[in-house]
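Worked example

This section walks through a single chain of length 142. The input is the sequence exactly as stored; nothing has been trimmed or padded.
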Amino acid sequence: MSKYAFSIDGERYYNATGEVPEIIIKNIINDGELEYNFEKEGFAIVYIGEQDGYGDSGSDCYDTIIDHFTEAAYEHGREYAEDYLSNISEESEKYLKEQLDKIWEEFKKIGNIEATFFSIPSYKMYRVEIDGSFKEVLEDKA
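Given that input, the structure is written out below as tokens.
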């Protein structure tokens, strides 16, 4: 997945090809992404931001798993099961989290599962002219 993304409407972002605005904008123009804007407005506004990819791990669900089995044990044994899983050592917790991470990564690998979505926490806006020149703008009015 690309490190950067671009948008023409400020809402839907797409993987960008390139690492600097000059290359990204050149590639967007070459791909014909701005033709409609050029024809309609005579220029285009392009948003470019760094992608914040989604990351997950098996250990993210550690607490959920422990809570699930603690509640299941209580449902089965009521007050006799109140202390079940209450004294997990740091070493045991670390071991389980490592194993959950390994299992989750293997699961994603076998299933060919990859997060292809991302967020854009911040971006810069550029006014792009028909001739390919551009400048950074501060608001969406050019």
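What to look for: The chain has a mean pLDDT of 93.
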